[in-house]
Amino acid sequence: MKFWHESASLILAAQKCNPAASSTVSNYKLLWLKRHQKSSFMPGMYVFPGGAIDSVDSTPKWREIFAAFGVNNDRFASLEPKIATRPEIYRSIQNELPREISLRITAIRETFEESGILICRHKNDRTVTNWAKFVSLPKDELQMWQTKVHNNATDFLALCEKLECYPDLWALREWRNWLTPTDMPKRFNNMLYLACLPSIPYAEYEALEMEDLKWERPEDLLSVDGIFPLPQQCEIARFIKIKSIDELIDLTMEQRNIREALQLYFPVHKLKSFID
């Protein structure tokens, strides 16, 4: 029996209009979404887009979508590192897509639902790039599709078929694996991915779950107190040390090439001592 849900989230880093970086100022911004005050999990907190894996994210139907739009099975091999130890969240399940595929679909689906940013490639797009691709929708259709996907995750499949695009899985790099502390009302084993964009795309938060959306440089978040969960605080501290988005891309490439086992991070709350 599992005591948590499996989920995936996506850190979106977008290059600013002026790409110059310095020792104190980053040349990119991170996407943040503020959870609704009435949310049952982390109400009022700023988080990265993401959510629990849905059965549709693991359906073999996605293989048909990828094949129809020019993606052959050989391309998926790069998503599965050839190392002995992989996180528990990647444990394969019979008759389902490998978790290296389905969790990325989860992160992309949830990012679209919550922010309106569709990290996908048009069919037959074989461009080799380290940047994530995104597909834009007319504004009058965007909220309609966000609501449809919110109400029924299967509609994300329908959206990709309609737009003739497929999730840009290869743009999502493994970043961190977090497990919610035991004292939280809901617990998630969360796979956190990172994708880099060459510019800041249009975004619109989905009002059923979120109440704000913003792009901020990592260093501008230092003065903000009390509105970020612990994992997000740790990630902010990590990003503050990286000023250039090119350096960020290089770091993810190095991590992928090293093929080190991804560690599971599990926050522990320290109790105050009762001893004088």
From TrEMBL:
Top-level taxon of origin: Eukaryota
Q: Which cofactor does it need?
A: Mn(2+); Mg(2+)
Asked if the record carries the keyword Metal-binding, the reply is: yes
The molecular function GO annotations come to: hydrolase activity, acting on acid anhydrides, in phosphorus-containing anhydrides; metal ion binding
UniProt entry tagged with the keyword ATP-binding: no
* Gene3D superfamilies linked to this entry: Nucleoside Triphosphate Pyrophosphohydrolase
InterPro entries assigned to the protein according to its UniProt record, in alphabetical order: NUDIX_hydrolase-like_dom_sf (IPR015797), NUDIX_hydrolase_dom (IPR000086), NUDT19 (IPR039121)
One annotated Gene Ontology cellular component of this protein: mitochondrion
- Nudix hydrolase domain: residues covered: 3-244
Q: Which keywords are on file for this protein? A: Hydrolase, Magnesium, Manganese, Metal-binding
- Entry similarity comment: Belongs to the Nudix hydrolase family.
Name it. Nucleoside diphosphate-linked moiety X motif 19, mitochondrial
